[in-house]
Design a protein that fits this description.
The complex is a heterodimer of chains A (258) and B (258).
Chain A (H helix, E strand, L loop, with lengths): L4 H4 L8 E12 L2 E12 L3 E5 L6 H8 L7 E6 L2 E2 L5 H8 L2 E4 L11 H6 L11 H14 L15 H13 L5 E5 L7 H18 L2 E6 L2 H7 L2 E6 L2 E6 L1 H6 L3 H4 L6
Parallel strand pairs in A: 3-8, 3-9, 6-7, 7-8
Antiparallel strand pairs in A: 1-2, 1-4, 4-5, 9-10
Chain B lengths: L7 H22 L7 H40 L6 H39 L2 H7 L4 H37 L6 H11 L2 H27 L4 H33 L4
Helix pairs in contact in B: 2-3, 2-5, 3-5, 3-6, 3-7, 3-8, 5-7, 7-8
Classes of the chains: A alpha/beta (258), B mainly alpha (258).
Chain lengths: 258, 258
């Protein structure tokens, strides 16, 4: 029998805020994508940001790592005002934030091993070749793909690419991980495996996560809390059960295929 | 003057402004203490080695053809003995630097536009940025430095090959010892011929790298955009090479080096 949502993900694990978004705004010309979005993330927590395609979910997490610069509001990450940091400070902080891209974004001219070694080049974690080697081995084992070390991304399946991207994201041992549609484009079985892997790695490395998706199966399996992004704002927040029980037609629309 | 949005003048101004900002960004990062030496060496070997066969063959053919085709005209004026000097001045001052730069624009510039463009649309550049590595320093600065230094080296090699081919061309009709040929060549060449050509080839190299990287970094609209970036990199770099050449001629003229 399937494990219940409550058993799988506990309530808010900590009161320590690791991320706080306040009044976040972003516009592309006259198109206002974010119109005052608020969200808090607590240590050890998984928050899923739910929203329709094109609602600005990916834009939102790109703001959190400053790949996009918000036009208004504030972002506090691990005690730092993200929008006030200079480039050097930002690069240091980014090491503490992992980002799993929807497309996996593996460097296609590098082997799997080189992909994993790349983030280590600049950072204190891999001070010796031996330490770097140990980290690469550990991460490949953690995602169950130790045998792919010398392969190129073009030789991997979609699910394998996603796992390697996850290993590359976690190799710097980030405190916060942002997942952009981690199961999109994967078959349901592989998608479920990826979510289980995310949960397992989160337990091992103690990360806090924001998961962007339109798939409530992911929420059911992995999220402590769901935030619904609608018209650029945090429209509703709650647990999966609270969303399931909601009578709001907008929320109910997401359960059509469940 | 009216600059209609979306019109050709508007597009030209946008392109000029964008490229100027990109070049300014290069100079802000070009001498940064965290220089990516390994990537710079890799790019230099790749660009220098990769272009050498094509540049060498082209230089050989240019030297030979120019010699063979110039002989009848010089013979008409009884000036056949001027052939080595004429060919040497032509290839060293103008033909080899410009043709080598155009070959590099076609081979290296388009390759950079396509490679970086592909990395851009598949979010690999974003992935690099969020892992705390500055993609501009890693990808653009190293490539621009490598072409700035490699194109002049290729020009020197190509000039030598073209002059050697010219000696073969001279010997196809009348035998001439290479000692005598080279004495005539070096008697004809002055510092005023060699130095401007050498200096302008640094600018040619810079343009090849800067345009290729600029086009790659500004790629949009998916795979179609990648093709367009590669194509536009060649067009824009070639045009800038001719403009620089024109300016170089004017400057050497003003300085009395012609």
């Amino acid at each position: 029998m399937e494990e219940s949502h409550a058993a799988r993900v506990s309530a808010r694990p900590s009161q320590e805020k690791v991320l706080s978004l306040r009044g976040l705004e972003l516009a592309f010309g006259s198109n206002k994508v974010l119109r005052g979005f608020d969200l808090d993330l607590y240590r050890g927590e998984n928050v899923m940001v739910l929203g329709k395609s094109g609602s600005g979910k990916s834009v939102l997490i790109k703001c959190i790592v400053r790949l996009l610069m918000p036009t208004g509001g504030s972002i506090e990450v691990l005690g730092h005002d993200l929008l006030g940091l200079d480039q050097e400070e930002l690069d240091h902080l980014r090491v503490r934030i992992g980002f799993l891209f929807q497309s996996s974004a593996l460097y296609d001219s590098m082997t799997v091993e080189q992909n994993l070694r790349f983030p280590l080049r600049r950072h204190w974690m891999a001070t010796t070749p031996g330490e770097a080697e140990a980290l690469v081995t550990e991460m490949l084992a953690a995602v169950g793909l130790a045998h792919t070390r010398s392969l190129y991304p073009s030789e991997l399946s979609g699910g394998m690419k996603r796992r390697i991207a996850l290993a590359r994201t976690l190799i710097l041992k980030p405190e916060i991980v942002l997942y952009d549609e981690p199961t999109t484009g994967l078959d349901p079985i592989t998608g479920k495996e990826i979510v289980e892997l995310i949960l397992e790695l989160q337990k091992t490395y103690g990360t806090s996560s924001i998961i962007i998706s339109h798939d409530l199966h992911v929420a059911r399996l992995a999220a402590n809390r769901i935030a619904l992004l609608h018209e650029g704002r945090n429209y509703a927040e709650g647990t999966y059960e609270e969303f399931r029980a909601s009578q709001d037609p907008l929320i109910q629309n997401f359960f059509i295929f469940m | 003057m009216k600059t209609e949005r979306g019109g050709p003048l508007h597009a030209f101004l946008l392109e000029t402004g964008g490229f100027s900002v990109f070049v300014a960004r290069f100079f802000r990062n070009a001498f940064h203490r965290r220089f990516e030496w390994r990537e710079f060496v890799r790019q230099s070997v790749l660009n220098g080695n990769g272009s050498l066969p094509l540049v060498a063959v082209t230089a050989f053919i240019m030297g030979l053809v120019l010699t063979v085709q110039s002989r009848p005209t010089l013979a008409r004026f009884g000036a056949e003995s001027m052939l080595p000097a004429m060919v040497a001045v032509s290839v060293v001052r103008e033909i080899v630097p410009v043709i080598t730069a155009l070959i590099c624009a076609g081979k290296i510039g388009s390759g950079m536009g396509a490679e970086l463009g592909s990395m851009k649309v598949t979010e690999q550049i974003d992935a690099m940025e969020v892992s705390g590595t500055n993609p501009f320093r890693y990808l653009a600065v190293t490539r621009i430095w490598s072409t700035t230094l490699m194109v002049p080296l290729l020009v020197i090699l190509a000039s030598g090959i073209a002059i050697w081919a010219s000696w073969i061309g001279v010997n196809m009709k009348d035998p001439l010892s290479w000692q005598l040929f080279y004495r005539q060549v070096f008697d004809a060449l002055s510092l005023g011929d060699v130095l401007p050509a050498f200096i302008k080839s640094f600018f040619f190299g810079f343009v090849v790298g800067a345009v290729g990287c600029y086009k790659g970094f500004t790629t949009a609209k998916g795979t179609e955009g990648v093709g367009r970036s590669a194509h536009n990199a060649v067009v824009m770099a070639s045009l800038l090479i001719f403009i620089i050449d024109l300016l170089a001629v004017q400057i050497t003229d003003i300085l009395g080096l012609n």
